Amino acid sequence: MPNLPNVVLWSIPAFVLLTVLEIVSYRFHPDEEEQGYTAKDTATSLTMGLGSLLFDAGWKIPILAIYSFLYELTPLRVPVLWWTVPLMLLAQDFFYYWSHRGHHVIRILWACHVVHHSSRNYNLSTALRQPWTSATSWVFYVPMILAGVHPAALAFCSSANLVYQFWIHTERIDRLPRPVEYVFNTPSHHRVHHASQGGYLDRNFGGILIVFDRLFGSFTPETTRPVYGLTKNLATFNPLRVATHEYASIARDVAAAGSWRDRVRHLTKGPGWQPGTTDRPEGNAA
């Protein structure tokens, strides 16, 4: 297995530089309609990002053990070559789409992902607002391991996907040329994903590509200016509360449920589900 670079680690200087440049751009070219940066929100995003690095280091141990066990079970092997890496990136992006979509429509998964949507600002620091319970995604990539993709190659593809998504968390870039907008996830598409308006909820789940949203009916173009955040926003910048608030809400609902069936539904239905309501998942509900 060839050594593959740690894409996230190598990208940290670029993350810092681009964030500083964006902050400076707001100082010299302010836009009253754009959210820009606020000190408390940015500090929370950076704290969540640093925390995620620490927690992810712990989560990787059991996940790597499971992946390694499954990799040894399968007789298939995908070599890491110049032409297989793009195919692995494409496969990882496909499974990322379904993982991301699942994290919006299954409440126990949303409890992890809601962290990333909890900012009412939308800037490059928002990309760093990552959860501390990211072990909820690993099962979606099991098919790649069983197909013979080495766990290290999957980690490389996942890191590349994450790094790509950094630059699309901005209001400073308008629409790009139509061929780019049609194929790739762009700032315009991802602004829709982070919006809390009803018509924008649970849309545009793509990582690098937007074509899977177009294929599976979850694409919505940016038409009106997005309002960022949750349908019920948090009244705190406390990182611990940001990281755990939805888990606490689930625990309260499960404790108050009148039956075991409803307790299970509070975990598996959409974030907006309550007994007596239709199963209409609303991924930005809180």
Structure description:
This protein is mostly helical and 286 residues long. Helix 3 packs across helix 4, helix 3 (84-105) packs across helix 6 (151-166) and helix 10 packs antiparallel against helix 11. The protein contains eleven helices and no strands. The longest helix has 35 residues, at 39-73. The chain has one domain (7-268). It has helices at residues 7-28, 39-73, 84-105, 107-113, 142-146, 151-166, 178-183, 187-193, 211-215, 239-256, 260-268. The chain starts with 6 loop residues before the first helix and ends in an 18-residue tail after the last helix. GO terms for molecular function: glyceryl-ether monooxygenase activity; iron ion binding. The chain crosses the membrane at residues 7-28, 48-68, 80-98, 138-164. Residues 266-286 are annotated as: Disordered. Residues 86-218 form the Fatty acid hydroxylase domain. Keywords: Lipid metabolism, Membrane, Oxidoreductase, Transmembrane, Transmembrane helix.
